[in-house]
Design a protein that fits this description.
- This protein is mainly alpha-helical.
- The chain has one domain.
- It has two helices and no strands.
- The protein has helices at about 1-25, 45-70.
- It is elongated and about 50 Å long.
Length: about 70
């Protein structure tokens, strides 16, 4: 059961990092329409949302690593 939790954490972490990179790279008008902050004729980028998404993704990946280590027995 712990492997399922780790798997979900890794998948969500990777998705969060990808979404964060998309927020940093794409201008507002080029974001997919289902992303929060999409504007048809908007200018600029969503740097704060990108940084937060990357931070959340890294935290989820760290939690997946901690869950893996806590299972070891000596």
């Amino acid at each position: 059961m712990l492997w399922l939790v780790r798997f979900v954490l890794v998948v969500l972490g990777i998705l969060a990092v990808v979404v964060g990179v998309i927020y940093l790279v794409e201008p507002v008008h080029s974001l997919p329409s289902f992303f929060p902050g999409y504007a048809l004729h908007g200018q600029g980028y969503h740097h704060i949302r990108g940084y937060i998404a990357i931070a959340v993704g890294i935290i989820l990946l760290i939690l997946a690593g901690i869950a893996r280590r806590s299972r070891r027995r000596y």
